[in-house]
Amino acid sequence: MPNVVWVDLDKLNLEEGASAQKFNLATHSDASGQVADMFNPTEPPAFLEAGAKAN
Q1: Is 32 among the domain residues?
Q2: Domain extent at residue 9
Q3: What is the pTM of this model?
């Protein structure tokens, strides 16, 4: 049976210049409840310019 997870956004640093972070549910398959403390630093995503095509 799947677990229910959520993120308390007040527990994340969402300020401009804050490092990018991610939560990987595949590696935390036993996670349940509030998971903001399970986020780890990661590289920020690469965004495409408007009209650009992905490779």
Answers
A1: yes
A2: 5-41
A3: 0.70
